[in-house]
């Protein structure tokens, strides 16, 4: 059996509101999560609502490039 592209790939989710605010000098960093997605079921970029400890609330975390 030939090995092709993996169906399940690891993706990094980054807080979208922290990225916009990172222009400030006093920012503490960016919230990131690592998860997996199925390439066949979700070909577009993944966006999930996750808790951001820097913003102290639930925000949208979007998939970023590796």
Give a verbal description of the structure.
The chain has 66 residues and is mainly β. 9% of the residues lie in helices and 44% in strands. It is built from one helix and four strands. The protein has a four-stranded antiparallel beta sheet. A hairpin with a 4-residue loop joins β3 and β4 (57-64). It starts with 7 loop residues before the first strand and ends with a strand. The model has no long low-confidence stretch (mean pLDDT 84).
Question: TL;DR of this structure?
Answer:
This protein has 66 residues and is mainly beta. It has one helix at residues 16-21; strands at 8-15, 32-38, 47-52, 57-64.
Topology record:
Layout: E1 8-15, H1 16-21, E2 32-38, E3 47-52, E4 57-64
Antiparallel strand pairs: 1-2, 1-4, 3-4
Feature tags:
Rubrerythrin, domain 2, elongated, 44% strand, four-stranded antiparallel beta sheet, Ribosomal_bL33_CS, Ribosomal_zn-bd, 66 residues, mainly beta, 1 helix
Low-confidence spans: pLDDT under 50, at least 5 residues?
none
- The name of the CATH topology is Rubrerythrin, domain 2
Q: Structural class, from secondary structure content? A: mainly beta
Number of domains: 1
CATH class: Mainly Beta
Output the helix-strand order: EHEEE
CATH architecture field: Single Sheet
- CA(first)-CA(last) distance: 29 Å
Q: How many E strands?
A: 4
Give helix % range: under 10%
Largest sheet: 4 strands, antiparallel
Protein name: Large ribosomal subunit protein bL33c
Pfam families: Ribosomal_L33
GO molecular function: structural constituent of ribosome
Main location: plastid
């Amino acid at each position: 059996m030939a090995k092709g592209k993996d169906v399940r790939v690891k993706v990094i989710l980054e807080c979208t509101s922290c990225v916009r605010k990172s222009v400030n000098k006093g920012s503490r960093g960016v919230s990131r999560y690592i998860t997996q997605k199925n390439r066949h079921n979700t070909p577009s970029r993944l966006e999930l609502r996750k808790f951001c400890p820097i913003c102290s609330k639930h925000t949208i975390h979007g998939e970023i490039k590796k």
